[in-house]
Amino acid sequence: MKKVLVTGAAGRVGANVCLQLSNRGTQVRAVVLPGDPFVCKIKGLPHVEIVEADLTDMQSVTEAVEGCTHFIHLAAQLIRGNTPYDMFYEINAFSTLRLLLAAVQYCEIERFVLASTDGTYCPGSLTRKNPIKETNEQLPGDHYGTGKYLGEVILRNLAFQYDIPFSIVRFATVVSPEESLSCYRYEYVMRLCELGKKGKDCHLWPLFQGQPDMGEILRENVPAQGNPALRLHGPKGLWTMHCGDVRDIVQGVLLAYEHPKALGEDFMIAGPRTTSYGEACEIFERLGVTRAQEVEFPVTWFLDMDITKAKTVLGFEPQWTFERMVQSGLDMEKNGPKGFIPATMRR
Fold first, then answer.
1. Nearest-CA neighbor of 137 among 115, 122, 117?
2. Segments in the chain forming alpha helices (H)
3. Count of CB atoms situated within 10 Å of the CB of 265
C-alpha cells in the first residue's frame, strides 16, 4: 500500500502537502524535528502519522523510512543566524544521502521528490541570466544554496546507481497568505539591507558588494512609521521579486510526486508571474493596506523565475498572483484560514 514520507512536515510547504495528501486519503508519515513547536499544524489530520526524527542520525532516519514507498523531502536548514556552517550540509545535503541509503535498503521506492531552491543560482547576483530557468548554470553563493545543490547531486548520483525514480523542484521564495501583507515594505526591505552588513556571510552578498549602505539610504529617505510599501528604483528600473504562494508551491510538489513525465526531471516552481515593487505598491494602496513611498537605490535587483517547463510538462497552473495573495491574507485576518495551513500557526 502507498505510504508517503514527508520530511519538514511542520514547515510552510510540508504542513500543506500533508493536508492535501490527507484530503486524498493517502497514508502519510510526517517527519518532524523532536520538540518542533509547529507540529500542531498537522496534529489530528486523518491518515497522517507524526514521527519525530533527527535527520542527522542514520538510525533515526532508518526507523522513519520503514514501510514507505514515496518520499517528499522538504526538510531544510534555511537561516544562517547562529547556525554552524556544517549544519547546512548535514541537513541540506547529507540528510538526502541518509534518506536515500535507508530507503534503498529498507523500502521499495516508487518516487523520491527533492525540494531545492532558486538559491542554487546565487539569487543576489547582479550579472546572472534572468529569468532563472533550469538550463542556467547552478552556481550557489552561500552555504545554504551550496548544501541544496549538493543534495541534488547526491540524488542524481544515487538515482543512477540504484535506479531510483526521482524529481527535483526548485522553489522561489515561499509565502503564506498572511505573510504577503508584510512583503515589499519598509521592514521587509530593511531586513534584506541588514544582511548586507554580514559581508559574504549571507545568500544575497553580491547584491551589496561594493555598494553604499542601502539600509542607511532607507533610514534617511523613508519614515518608518506605518511600515510603508516601497516603490524601489535602481538605474535599470524597478526592483522585482518572484515569490510563490504556498498553495501554488504545494501544487508543484504534488505534480512532481505523481506525474509520469516528472521522472528524472527538475522544475522551477513559483507563482504565476514576477511582481515589481511598483506593482506591489499599487496593490497595497488599492486594497487599503498601506501607503507607498518612492526610494532610489544604487542598484537594480531582478529576481525572476521561468516556470515554463513546469507548465508545459506537468500542467502546473499557479493561481495566486500577489494581489490574490494579499486579498487572501486580508480575508484570513477577518475569517481565519480556509483550505490551507498558515505558516504562523504554532503552539
1. 122
2. 12-24, 58-65, 85-89, 95-106, 143-162, 177-180, 186-195, 205-208, 214-221, 246-258, 277-286, 308-309, 322-335
3. 17
Q: Read off the C-alpha cell for 104.
A: 534503498
Residue 210: Cβ-neighbour burial (10 angstroms; 0-12, 13-18, 19+): exposed
Beta-strand pair 229-234/292-296: parallel
CA 169/CA 312 separation, integer angstroms: 15
Indicate the SS3 state at residue 34. Answer: coil
Inter-residue contact 228 to 185 (CB < 8 Å) = yes
Q: Dihedral (C-alpha) 288, 290, 295, 299: value to the nearest 10 degrees?
A: -90
Q: Are strands 111-117 and 229-234 parallel, antiparallel or unpaired?
A: unpaired
Q: How far apart, in whole angstroms, are the C-alpha atoms of residue 166 and residue 178?
A: 32
Task: Give this prediction's pTM.
Answer: 0.96
Q: Specify whether the CB–CB gap between 102 and 62 falls below 8 A.
A: yes
Which distant-in-sequence residues (6+ apart) come within 8 Å of 272 by Cβ?
A: 248, 318, 319, 320, 321
Cell output for 315 = 500542467
Q: Are 144 and 86 in contact (CB under 8 A)?
A: no
Phi, psi of 49, rounded to the nearest 5 degrees: -100, 125
Long-range contacts of 211-219 (CB under 8 A, 24+ apart): 211/298, 211/299, 212/298, 214/297, 214/298, 215/190, 217/295, 217/296, 217/297, 217/298, 218/186, 218/189, 218/190, 218/193, 218/295
CB 180 within 8 A of CB 174: no
Phi, psi of 177 (to 5 degrees): -50, -40
- Give the mean pLDDT per block of 10 residues along the chain (347 residues): 95 97 98 94 97 96 97 87 82 96 97 97 91 95 94 98 98 96 96 88 90 94 89 96 97 98 98 98 97 96 96 98 98 94 77
* Distinct helix (H) and strand (E) counts, the chain: 13, 14
3-state secondary structure of 173: strand
Q: Are the C-beta atoms of 87 and 106 separated by less than 8 Å?
A: no
- How distant is the alpha carbon of residue 225 from its chain centre? 30
> Exposed (0-12), middle (13-18) or buried (19+): which is 160, by Cβ within 10 Å?
exposed
